[in-house]
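Appendix B. Extra example for self-study. Work through it before the problem class; the solution is given directly after the inputs so you can check yourself.
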Amino acid sequence: MVNASPDLRQQIEARPILQPRRGLRDSPIAAVILTGGEVDAVAGLLHLRESQRFTLFATGRVHEALQANPIFNALNPAFVHRQSVHLDRPFDLPGGIVAELFAVPGKVALYLEREGNDLAGDVEDTVGLRLSSRTGAACYFIPGCEHLPAGIAERLRGSDLVFFDGTLWTNDEMIREGSGTKTGQRMGHMSVADPRGTIESFRDLDVRRKVFIHINNSNPILLDDSPERAIAARAGWEVAYDGMEIVL
Amino acid sequence: MVNASPDLRQQIEARPILQPRRGLRDSPIAAVILTGGEVDAVAGLLHLRESQRFTLFATGRVHEALQANPIFNALNPAFVHRQSVHLDRPFDLPGGIVAELFAVPGKVALYLEREGNDLAGDVEDTVGLRLSSRTGAACYFIPGCEHLPAGIAERLRGSDLVFFDGTLWTNDEMIREGSGTKTGQRMGHMSVADPRGTIESFRDLDVRRKVFIHINNSNPILLDDSPERAIAARAGWEVAYDGMEIVL
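Solution. Structure tokens for the complete assembly:
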């Protein structure tokens, strides 16, 4: 200790250590499920490297993408267990929750695109997640979906809650406003307001609660007072926000 | 457009597009200089993938670490130029600023640690940065430094401003408080208040302004009203904060 007066020394020694729920570095995160390998899906893992125990669930393809990047070794294998899961096979999470991953139309992560490769990638590259509880309540989480095939529409029909890809308002909005060179579809996303877009595709699916997630900063539904937000709300859609809590 | 009433349609079409300084996605960042390959030094690059033009300067070793992680391909090579720089050879930045990297005692990035490897790594793994302007003013940026050899102390002597490694208050604080299992030195950091620590090592170097950076959340100097902060301030040290602006 440098130059601490006896007085300061006493203050330092007497200070109580603040205690979170269990130890100084407690985290309530018991499991992480990845729905793809794109930067916005996986970069947050780099913040979970504080020697907290959790299980990391993803398809084999997405685990391969992580394993190809040594930076994710920052997740200490003594604490973080990487578990590969198969599509369409339910698996258990802590707290009695059952999860299931299923293929949705999408694309390979941008940083894995290679000339000549099929951008659509493998069925395991972009997936949707179903979570259900002991009470039978279920929700779906689908942050990227290039179009809505009949099979997925039927899966979602009548469900309690769906979080869904709200990337763009219209397919060409980034090109029109000059903020990008790609359409939504080229990026693996259907758009909210297009004629065969999300609002239209969900109109007759009787989903009790519908929430847009994964919203690009060019999408005007992000503005509380935009006419686009009003259109989405009138069609029964909410817009997710940081700190949103859900009770099913 | 789905179900937009003529009224809403008119509002949408009449809305002016807000313009930042140059186009919708302007960024004032013209160059990024890395002082190491550790997660906290490089993860922020993943936020700079919006097709903004900048040059990424780093040693060959640090560029190798990035290249070994395909996730950084998210930095489109059409916009981001990766430039390797040699130690102790000044190079030009935009705006008439001259930069120079030099070796400091440190360690290889945690995620690159391998059993049997020398943790100290290569001289290019952990570096300090010198920035100088046409006016002759200069500052140093050294976020990780395991101890202060005489050569580096002499380099810093009498300088205008030094940003320096403030990771821990004492070498064993994470072990004592139960938030970690490693000493500061094992992580490649000298500590602020240790007998041969930072405050003592800088005491006679006549640096005009001294600012702690890279401060771990276990270090009590982060608290404005802590006795440790008072000790550091009395020794002429400031504590950096988000949004801090410097005029040299």
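Self-check: The first strand of chain B starts at residue 31 and ends at 33. If your reasoning did not lead you there, revisit section 3.
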